[in-house]
Amino acid sequence: MSELRFPENFVWGAATAAYQIEGATQEDGRGPSIWDTFSRTPGKVFQGHTGDVACDHYHRYADDVAMMAELGLRTYRFSVAWPRIQPDGTGPVNPRGLDFYDRLVDTLLGRGIDPFVTLYHWDLPQTLQDRGGWTSRETAEHFADYAVAVLGRLGDRVRTWTTLNEPWCSAYLGYGNGVHAPGERDAGAAFRAVHHLLLGHGLATRALRAAGVATLGLTLNPADVQPADADSEADAAAVRLVDGLHNRIFLDPLTGAGYPEDVLEHVARHVEPTFLRDGDEKIIAAPIDLLGVNYYSPAYVAGRSGGAGGSAYPGTEGVVEFLPPVGPLTEMGWMIEPAGLTRLLERIGADYPGLPLMITENGGAFPDKAGAEDPDGTGRVADTDRVAYLDGHLRAVHRAIARGVDVRGYLVWSLLDNFEWAEGYRKRFGIVHVDYLTQRRTPKESARWYREVISRNGL
Known about the structure:
The protein is an alpha/beta fold. It is 39% helix and 16% strand. This is Beta-glucosidase.
């Protein structure tokens, strides 16, 4: 293949999340999160795994940052654990919690790596969940206060901020089908959570902007939803329903168009939308500078009477069939289709023009195996499937850019193997292998490959 070059100043980096890597869940004043509770609930997480230790990044961050520098990363996206900053979700700020992120940011900058902060990656303080969590308007209001508290310590050095990571997961998986924390199964709760997550984003965006933040956004996991049969009207209707629940319910209000009427009609079949108050949509539409796009796999749907629907999509039962993925698949069982990323980026660029995009997560879980020794005696992890996955998706990003989509950067998921939520430690997404018994880090072949991609600014 011919060489491909990305635009000048294209951002290259990697991403992680606090609960997945930090550990130290009971140190320095941190309060419990919904994931501490959920992971201790029998049957919720694979073999009862928890994030108590994870990758011990809380203690090993300096070595991890040194490794990032060796891999040539220019940007590191990490999340701040709300329970470290406000153990109960409200009230006085815990200075020891902020101290950790203060040290992390200084260490990153000392290595020439730009810190990219995500304020919420699913680890809601348990005390707030006890009062309703994201089904309560109060949580949105407290989130804005928390955001300002973090900015007050880190704002002089961090340039890029995002409020939420994948509110679709927080709402539908946390409150709809219960496969993620807090484990509730209530369609009405899921829709209330969608709105309050967006409201929290809007309130935090206003507060952060007033405090002087220059680059501000949020991260979604928009879906590339495709019909099983492009000529079928029933399949087109299924696409519109799923697209409304996954994409338009977030993108439209965020960009000032308000909630789509067809989506509101669907929501009203499950819960009276009394949680939507006058002025809320204006708050949600506070201007952003960047939309993070997390992409892993497409979705193919058909409109079928009696279709099984999807548990994460309330109201699709009986009318939608989600087609099973076809190979090749990742170890998560997700279909590998880089073309879906190109389609998705082009769709967002066309439907929501003027909104700069960044790939804030993209990667694959594969059963990594230790291979031969390197000449210098360090272990080698040959993850050729991951290299092929990343290569294909970077080419998909490049195609979108060549077609005029404004994509500013690419952050691989994930820097480290880590606690993969309900899957525990059995699924590995990292470009760096973690031995959870010894905490030894070993860059995989994908890490070495990615270092070369960054150095060339291309493929």
